[in-house]
């Protein structure tokens, strides 16, 4: 189990999801400290036995691993605030921010800073996260293992060897829970319009989503074959899929993922301009 002291900067949605995942995985709450600029969100963590503070430097001073979970636009200012503390304590830095490059963080914290960029997602909160990790050249093998252990406690994690691939991870995992929630919202709404009551509509749509995902995970059978197994020739599924195709669903999904990547690239430029 993780013995390192973990310091989380930012108590928002993503850091909270990681902390929830770590606590469910059995990480000692006394090994976790969390800061947030406003006090309100810290009560949740204090109630669970974590050290909390509105001072980022106070939390950073306690940390072997510092997880930066503020919004991208705030990340480099927060790094500036933490620079002196990090110079003294030399933590492994993990940034979960979309768009902000390790090089940009190192420009603020110092060129000798080991930095991992993690791109997790919010199902981490129930140990079902999917994350990508990239390490700069200062991260040693032990730190790589530690970073992966922390993120994997909340789900699965894969290393990418080029930082630009973190943007692909954003498109397929970081942002992607929202795509599925959006699809489910539409499916539930339409099922209601077709006459099902809201409770049954949601239960059926959500269980189908879960069942389909679990079926994929449980078998070597490829996705296209699993799809074909549902699609009787001349039947209802074929009619639905033909309608999706005719209205350009494939291109729509691809364009959405590309838009996520393009936005991540813009955010890196914005972070650079903001300083
Ligand atoms: N949400 C997601 O699904 C994912 C998010 N990410 C990344 O995670 C990061 C956080 O996103 P998310 O959790 O959604 O955002 P949230 O707005 O929920 O959380 C950000 C938190 O940072 C706090 N904060 C802001 N400035 C400071 C500061 N100077 N010092 C201390 N705390 C501060 C905010 O406090 P306050 O409440 O007082 O404003 C807020 O609680 C982003 O960089 C995002 O790119 C990555 C993958 C997925
Ligand atoms: O929407 C965002 O920018 C963040 C990054 C991935 C998920 N949420």
TrEMBL record:
Compartment(s) where it occurs, according to its Swiss-Prot or TrEMBL record: Cytoplasm
Q: Which InterPro entries match?
A: 6-PGluconate_DH-like_C_sf, NAD(P)-bd_dom_sf, P5C_Rdtase_cat_N, P5CR-like_CS, P5CR_dimer, Pyrroline-COOH_reductase
Indicate the enzyme's highest-level EC class.
oxidoreductase
Reactions mediated catalytically? L-proline + NADP(+) = (S)-1-pyrroline-5-carboxylate + NADPH + 2 H(+); L-proline + NAD(+) = (S)-1-pyrroline-5-carboxylate + NADH + 2 H(+)
What pathway does the annotation place this protein in? Amino-acid biosynthesis; L-proline biosynthesis; L-proline from L-glutamate 5-semialdehyde: step 1/1
User: Which GO-annotated molecular functions does the record name?
Assistant: pyrroline-5-carboxylate reductase activity
Q: Which domain of life is it from?
A: Bacteria
Q: Keywords of this protein's UniProt record, alphabetized?
A: Amino-acid biosynthesis, Cytoplasm, NADP, Oxidoreductase, Proline biosynthesis
Annotated EC: 1.5.1.2
Xref: Gene3D superfamilies: NAD(P)-binding Rossmann-like Domain, ProC C-terminal domain-like
A GO biological process this protein is involved in? L-proline biosynthetic process
Q: Could you name the Gene Ontology cellular component terms for this entry?
A: cytoplasm
Locate the residues binding NADPH.
Answer: 56
Task: Write out the residues that bind NADP(+).
Answer: 9-14
Name the job this protein performs: Catalyzes the reduction of 1-pyrroline-5-carboxylate (PCA) to L-proline.
Name the HAMAP family for this protein. P5C_reductase (MF_01925)
Q: Which family does it belong to?
A: Belongs to the pyrroline-5-carboxylate reductase family.
Q: What is this protein called?
A: Pyrroline-5-carboxylate reductase
Give the taxonomic lineage as stored in the record: Bacteria, Pseudomonadati, Pseudomonadota, Gammaproteobacteria, Cellvibrionales
